[in-house]
Design a protein that fits this description.
Length: 67
């Protein structure tokens, strides 16, 4: 779908964006490109007054993901 084709009933879902996608993060492949692309999509949806939803991931301090 082209971004210019957006309209009533469309929404943007930003799922599991995290600091790993920022410079210096653990994501090694194209990490500097993820957030700017998402920001562009977010701006376009907001300009068209379309909803933007984002999830927020968290883990307890003693989670296995930190080891």
């Amino acid at each position: 779908m082209q971004i210019s084709e957006l309209g009533l009933g469309d929404a943007l879902l930003a799922i599991h964006l995290q600091n790993d996608f920022l410079p210096g993060g653990r994501c090694r492949s194209r990490r500097d490109q993820v957030i700017p692309v998402m920001n562009n999509y977010i701006d376009r949806f907001i300009q068209r007054q379309l909803p933007v939803f984002a999830t927020r991931d968290w883990h307890p301090k003693k989670s296995w993901v930190f080891y």
